[in-house]
């Protein structure tokens, strides 16, 4: 009877499983508990720095933004989370709508984050900027032909555009931004032309679009700028080679500016440590933290006056769309529906 | 239950253990079924205007692609799994012993990781096509090459990862099949091929059905692969509705329809073989393998090798190449922590699943009433639901329980208990059980189905209690199935991602979480090592099991 021998092991393992949450519960009072849609490696170094500086422990759970929001909502007033970190404005907007955030207001926060990159009532604040840009093949595209997102719907781009699926939040925000500034009709019309110009069915991630442009499968692609940065600094020679075959173009510089989204944070309604949570947001907005975002992940700082990294400087400065990013959250569903109508897979 | 043969009834057992078994099963299944019921209950809630939009635009796409995907993966896992099982169980050829366990390896590969590796190799910008272009001077559009990121590509990926379910279950069934029947077929002048199709396959039908339905349930729940390939299926639709439209309710309703669909399929499949019985003979006889010689041996060897190459060696090699560059910086204490977390969770969950599967499966055999049967069926439905959705189904009742207890205590005693279960490993392991019970249940049940009730009858008439029969007779006879059940759930939990992500406690990571975070940031080179580690840890039980796999020649 082999099986019987396993019994003690099961008991020990079960006991261990029961102990773990107790350990977390017993931890010190000077803590901040974070639900983060931003993945660990893109935030942990900063959190560690915060802990060593302030002595405040930081506990972290990462996951998909909407799933964390569902967890936060269902846990209600007993939720252990003090801070919700997301990688897009839409989820912060949804969290605010769902009533799981509380305002955190300080002069420092207001000074650090431009008005259009935070919730008007102080429920959440942008921490870093992510721009959606056009990349094009150096050898096949004359940048004079490029101007705006809208122009990509013109017939000259037929069969030349690569972009990932419309299930991706960055594409949804882009279309939401267009809805906000151009309205439904113009956006529908643009989508018709734009989707008709795709070189292949949408697939893969942003890096895959850059590789496809480099390999000649298409001539232009829409990607977040930091992916191009990551490829230029990649340990893999092929990725670096592909990235050098394309060039970055800032769209809509004549008009409303390039579409940007934020990663951001808000203090939860149930927070047991709202003070510490606010201090963490303030820490993440300090100049050196802001520079870290640029240097480690090629994102743009939200704080005005912080010099971005060398690589970002080499791409030149750009004019960003100034609509309040909460509009992107408000119009996200409408954007998805518009993309469905246009058959953007 | 069975028509055509007089149904066997046990000598009236003393009412007490019978009642205990029945209530135990009903309560246990009910508990496990709660998350599934939470999802299904969404059907009773209101239908939002988003439905109008879904119906008029994308739903037909979702349904069509999901059905094609199911048919494709069904066919793929069936042919790969059955041929692998037949070769290693019934034939003798060079390398058979090696292949009999090596062919399980693809199981340890998370499907989306496999998708990344194949894309890396076969994409337009990848090395294979680049080499072709450089060699022949072709440009874009000059030549045809299968598009890996497509519906067909997704079918291939999922078939390669999921065929081991069919392989494992069917192999055990072949090995346990009565050789007398097979030999009779051979003696009556049937060729080995005819024997396979006329006798072997029909006899292995419960195992094939169990394996293929597991593969299909997992296919319908898969998100990573289809999302990366840009194939819109029902699952991507569920997430698009939830994340994109912000409609969790509508997403749950979509998931509920998916569940009902799978449930109907399973019922139909069971109905269609209800009249048949598949018990093996009481005497354990030793099958003689068909010795393959000459080109036949070479063919058998190459078929097995090709499956192994495509399902494991190629993708693992790609991972190794990616991971080779930075293996030093990743092997630190934190990495060991990931390994031990993953291992502990997988071990814990697989034991829990096995225990419940034995309890439910055996209880259903003892008292096959309609209520018990239905309850056990529903408890096994979690496997067809995308992990994140089932996780929400776990979150809601757990948080409700915690908050209710907390409110009660606040009102009566003035103290707050906070969250007792939410955000603990208990909730997480419970979710694993909900999600993977089907795997161990199918395995144990298909094993039990092959044990003749006559054995139970004899034991009962000799005065043994049901528990003692389970322990002394069934468990030893079920050894293969029990190990299979443990292994399958272990590996499944090891690579499980969405449920772990949303339900885990603070600061608790697993290998799958790490691999996913890096891969979702499109850092494949960095994701390669945690992915390889999942595969390596998955190897341990595979090897352990191969040593104790049923089969006379192996144990000898």
**Second CATH tier, the architecture of the largest domain in chain A:** 3-Layer(aba) Sandwich
Count of discrete structural domains of chain B: 1
Measured by DSSP, the beta-strand proportion of chain B falls in under 5%
How many DSSP helices of chain A? 15
Q: What characteristic shape of chain B results from the CA principal axes?
A: globular
Strands ordered across the widest β-sheet of chain B: 1-2
The whole-number mean of residue pLDDT values of chain A reads 90
CATH-defined superfamily of the largest domain in chain A: Periplasmic binding protein-like II
Q: What count of structural domains of chain A?
A: 2
Would you identify the regions of chain B where 5 or more consecutive residues have pLDDT less than 50?
A: 1-7, 551-556
Tell me about the biggest sheet of chain B? Answer: 2 strands, parallel
| CATH level 1 class label of chain B | Mainly Alpha
Strand content of chain A: 15-25%
Describe this structure in words.
Chain B: This is Iron ABC transporter permease. Chain B: One of its GO terms (biological process) is transmembrane transport. Chain B: It comes from Kineobactrum sediminis. The complex is a heterodimer of chains A (345) and B (556). Chain A has 345 residues and is of the alpha/beta class. Chain A is built from 15 helices and ten strands. Chain A has two domains: 2-129 and 261-307, Periplasmic binding protein-like II (D-Maltodextrin-Binding Protein, domain 2, 3-Layer(aba) Sandwich), CATH 3.40.190.10; 131-259 and 321-341, D-Maltodextrin-Binding Protein, domain 2, CATH 3.40.190. Helix content of chain A is 44%, strand content 15%. In chain A, strands 1, 2, 3, 4, 5, 6, 7, 8, 9 and 10 form a ten-stranded mixed β-sheet that branches. In chain A, strand 1, helix 2 (44-54) and strand 2 form a beta-alpha-beta unit. In chain A, helix 8 (206-215) crosses helix 10. The radius of gyration of chain A is 22 Å and the shape is globular. The termini of chain A are far apart. Chain B is globular, with a radius of gyration of 24 Å. Chain B is 74% helix and 1% strand. In chain B, helix 7 (151-176) packs antiparallel against helix 10 (205-221). Classes of the chains: A alpha/beta (345), B mainly alpha (556). The interface between A and B is large, with 74 and 76 residues.
């Amino acid at each position: 009877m082999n099986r019987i021998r396993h019994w003690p092991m099961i008991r020990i393992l079960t006991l261990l499983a029961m102990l773990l949450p107790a350990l977390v519960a017993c931890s010190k009072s000077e803590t901040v508990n974070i639900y983060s849609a931003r993945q660990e490696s893109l935030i942990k170094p900063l959190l560690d720095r915060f802990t060593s500086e302030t002595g405040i422990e930081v506990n972290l759970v990462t996951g998909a933004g909407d799933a964390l929001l569902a967890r936060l909502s269902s846990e209600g007033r007993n939720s252990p989370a003090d801070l919700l970190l997301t990688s897009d404005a839409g989820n912060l907007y949804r969290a605010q709508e769902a009533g799981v955030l509380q305002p955190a207001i300080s002069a420092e926060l207001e000074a650090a984050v431009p008005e259009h990159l935070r919730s008007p009532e102080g429920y959440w604040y942008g921490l870093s900027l992510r721009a959606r840009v056009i990349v094009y093949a150096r050898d096949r595209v004359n940048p004079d032909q490029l101007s705006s997102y809208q122009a990509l719907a013109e017939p000259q781009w037929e069969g030349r555009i690569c972009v990932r699926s419309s299930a991706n939040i960055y594409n949804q925000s882009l279309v939401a931004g267009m809805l906000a500034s151009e309205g439904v009709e113009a956006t529908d019309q643009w989508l018709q032309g734009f989707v008709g110009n795709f070189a292949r069915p949408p697939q893969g991630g942003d890096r895959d679009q850059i590789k496809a442009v480099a390999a000649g499968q298409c001539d232009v692609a829409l990607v977040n700028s930091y992916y191009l940065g990551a490829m230029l600094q990649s340990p893999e020679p092929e990725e670096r080679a592909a990235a050098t075959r394309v060039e970055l173009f800032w769209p809509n510089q004549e008009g409303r500016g390039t579409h940007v989204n934020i990663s951001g944070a808000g203090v939860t309604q149930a927070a047991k440590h709202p003070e510490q949570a606010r201090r963490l947001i303030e820490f993440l907005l300090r100049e050196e933290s802001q520079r870290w975002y640029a240097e480690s992940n090629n994102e743009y700082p939200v704080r005005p006056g912080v010099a971005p990294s060398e690589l970002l400087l080499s791409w030149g400065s750009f004019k960003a769309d100034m609509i309040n990013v909460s509009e992107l959250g408000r119009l996200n569903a409408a954007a998805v529906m518009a993309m469905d109508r246009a058959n953007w897979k | 239950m069975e028509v055509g043969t007089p149904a066997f009834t046990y000598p009236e057992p003393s009412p007490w253990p019978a009642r205990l078994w029945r209530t135990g099963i009903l309560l246990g299944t009910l508990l496990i079924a709660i998350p599934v019921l939470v999802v299904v209950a969404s059907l009773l809630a209101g239908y939002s205007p988003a439905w109008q939009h879904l119906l008029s635009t994308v739903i037909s796409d979702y349904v069509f692609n999901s059905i094609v995907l199911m048919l494709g993966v069904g066919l793929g896992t069936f042919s790969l799994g059955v041929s692998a099982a037949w070769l290693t169980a019934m034939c003798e050829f060079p390398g058979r012993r090696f292949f009999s366990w090596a062919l399980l390896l693809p199981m340890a590969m998370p499907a989306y990781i496999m998708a990344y590796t194949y894309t890396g190799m076969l994409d337009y910008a990848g090395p294979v096509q680049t080499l072709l272009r450089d060699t022949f001077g072709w440009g874009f559009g000059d030549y045809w090459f299968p598009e890996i990121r497509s519906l067909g590509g997704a079918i291939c990926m999922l078939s390669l990862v999921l065929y081991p379910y069919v392989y494992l279950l069917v192999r055990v069934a072949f090995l346990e099949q009565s050789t007398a029947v097979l030999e009779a077929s051979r003696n009556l002048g049937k060729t080995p091929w005819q024997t396979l199709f006329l006798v072997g396959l029909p006899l292995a039908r419960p195992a094939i059905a169990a394996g293929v339905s597991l593969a299909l349930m997992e296919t319908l729940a898969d998100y990573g692969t289809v999302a990366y390939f840009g194939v819109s299926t029902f699952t991507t639709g569920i997430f698009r509705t939830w994340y994109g439209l912000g409609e969790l309710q509508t997403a749950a309703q979509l998931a509920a329809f998916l569940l009902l669909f799978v449930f109907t399929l399973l019922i139909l499949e069971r109905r269609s073989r209800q009249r048949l019985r598949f018990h093996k003979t009481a005497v354990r006889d030793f099958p003689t393998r068909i010795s393959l010689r000459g080109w036949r041996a070479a063919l058998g060897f190459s078929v097995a090798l090709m499956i192994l190459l495509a399902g494991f060696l190629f993708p693992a090699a790609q991972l190794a190449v990616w991971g080779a560059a930075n293996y030093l910086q990743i092997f630190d204490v934190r990495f060991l922590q990931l390994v031990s977390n993953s291992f502990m969770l997988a071990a814990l969950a697989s034991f829990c699943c096995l225990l419940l599967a034995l309890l439910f499966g055996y209880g259903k055999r003892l008292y096959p009433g309609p209520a018990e049967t239905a309850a056990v069926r529903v408890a096994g439905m979690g496997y067809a639901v995308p992990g994140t959705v089932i996780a929400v189904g776990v979150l809601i009742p757990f948080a409700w329980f915690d908050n209710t207890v907390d409110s009660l205590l606040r009102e009566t005693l003035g103290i707050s208990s906070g969250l007792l279960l939410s955000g603990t490993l208990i909730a997480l392991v419970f979710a694993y059980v909900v999600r993977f019970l089907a795997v161990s249940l199918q395995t144990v049940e298909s094993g039990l189905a092959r044990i003749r009730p006559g054995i139970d009858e004899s034991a009962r008439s000799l005065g043994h209690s049901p528990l003692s029969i389970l322990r002394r007779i069934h468990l030893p006879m079920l050894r293969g199935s029990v190990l299979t059940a443990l292994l399958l759930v272990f590996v499944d939990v090891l690579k499980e991602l969405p449920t772990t992500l949303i339900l885990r406690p603070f600061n608790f990571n697993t290998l799958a979480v790490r691999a996913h975070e890096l891969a979702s940031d499109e850092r494949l080179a960095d994701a390669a090592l945690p992915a390889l580690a999942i595969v390596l840890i998955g190897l341990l039980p595979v090897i352990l099991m191969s040593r104790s796999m049923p089969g006379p020649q192996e144990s000898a």
